[in-house]
Amino acid sequence: MSRPFAYDDDFDALGSAPYHDAPPIEESDSFKRDRDERLRGAHGAHAPSEKKLPPLKIIRPEEWRGRDIPERKFIVPGMVPCGVVTGLYGPPGKGKSTLAMQLQAATARGGEWCGRIVEPVKSVGVYCEDDADELMRRWRRIEDHMQIGENDLRNARMVSRLGEDNILATFAKSGKIELTPLHKQLVEWAKDERAELVIFDTVSDGFAGNENDRTQVRQFVQSALATIARDIGGAVMFLAHPSRAGMSDGSGQSGSTAWEGTVRSRLYFRDEDAPDGSMPDKDARVLSVMKANYAPSGESVPLRYRNGAFVPEFPAGNAYRPPAEDVFLSILDAMNAQGQRVSATRMANNYAPREFRRHPQRQGYQGGDFERAMTRLFDRNMIRVEEAGPPSKRVRWIVRSASTVEVVV
After folding, report:
1. Which pick of 120, 139, 170, 195 has the fewest CB atoms within 10 Å?
2. Phi and psi dihedrals of 315, rounded to 5?
3. Largest CA-CA distance found in the chain, in angstroms, rounded
4. What is the chain's mean pLDDT, rounded?
5. C-alpha distances in angstroms, 62 versus 4, 58, 70, 293?
6. pTM of this structure
């Protein structure tokens, strides 16, 4: 005789069996066949199989106790973060591709890009709008302007994809994204080069979907581009054109707001605003940080096109700063010549970056810039630590390595 469900222990651990003592029900072969026929009729000739999902990666905040907070990494501080996607927008014909190539040149040696000291990393660039000859013409002007050394050239690689099929992803009828063989080839190439920066010019060449479709846009940025950034442990930057409305209202946007919502950083490169009634300056540009999830937004950097490259316009009128390493060496020479020795030890009173940031010849660089420059100079064996004095009162200071050629700033 059955009894009502009165207690919790009437159910098993999963809440699926009403009685612990209920005998198992044996299904006859005919019953199984009838059931399978009904299922096939409901789902078609092939009943869908359940896809086993990978386990959820549970985050337990209590496990973070006692662990160091990981530092946010940037290729360009405040502008191009690692592990995510950055969009560089700008009207046609204003020099976005040149600016992107300048970033490759700057990262090749750890120099400056748009007034920021960048990380020295290897990069690859995919340029879909220009042939190899045009890329060479632009690169040579940039190389001469930025004084790129022969060894540094090995850190930059690029490919012309003009006239090629450059689609990185398509979309099935179900709406799900499908990566193309070119996407796989690009990832493998970047990994082979050990690149930490990938540039794709322009995004419309690689995106085969509807730019106004929020779902397609979000899938493309997250599944096609951001996966590259995560795979290489670096950054991906795509170039894009704003819509007429985006140029008119100054936002520089185009298509669905999902582009803006999914990228973690968006830069807008445009002409400088001309005062009312005056002719616009054809060589003046502005690079604005329109969105930055991991840094302050709203900053604008005035630039000027000069001798084939865009250079920042500094208040003092100096349109180009030498690399931080060159400024570091110049100040080091000046202080050593005056008998003012500086140390590589952070806790020392005469710690070099701290001293250099107060020097009148610092060219606007800050202590953090000089710290990174000092690290790179040590890595390149361009500076070393000299020691003198008795063991009880040993004195150490930074000097140039014997093979270092003097740089005049």
Report:
1. 170
2. -55, -35
3. 104
4. 84
5. 44, 12, 16, 25
6. 0.68
Q: What is the distance between the alpha carbons of residues 45 and 23, in angstroms, rounded to a whole number? A: 34
User: Phi and psi (nearest 5°) for 126?
Assistant: -110, 110
What are residue 384's phi and psi, to 5 degrees?
-150, 170
Of the candidates 204, 187, 205, 180, which has an alpha carbon nearest to the alpha carbon of residue 124?
187
Residues sharing a CB contact under 8 Å with residue 363, sequence separation 6 or more, in sequence order: 318, 321, 322, 327, 409
Q: Which residue in the block uniquely carries the two structure tokens 């930057």?
A: 237
What is the four-CA torsion angle of 380, 405, 361, 149, rounded to 10 degrees?
A: -60
In the block, residue with structure tokens 């809440």: 15
Structure tokens at 394: 């040993």
What Cα–Cα distance (Å) separates residue 271 from each residue in 156, 254, 277, 310, 317?
28, 18, 16, 12, 19
Write down the residue that tokens 């990938």 correspond to: 198
Q: What's the pLDDT score for residue 15?
A: 40
Would you call 334 helix, strand, or coil by DSSP?
helix
Instruction: List beta partners, residue 384.
Output: 399
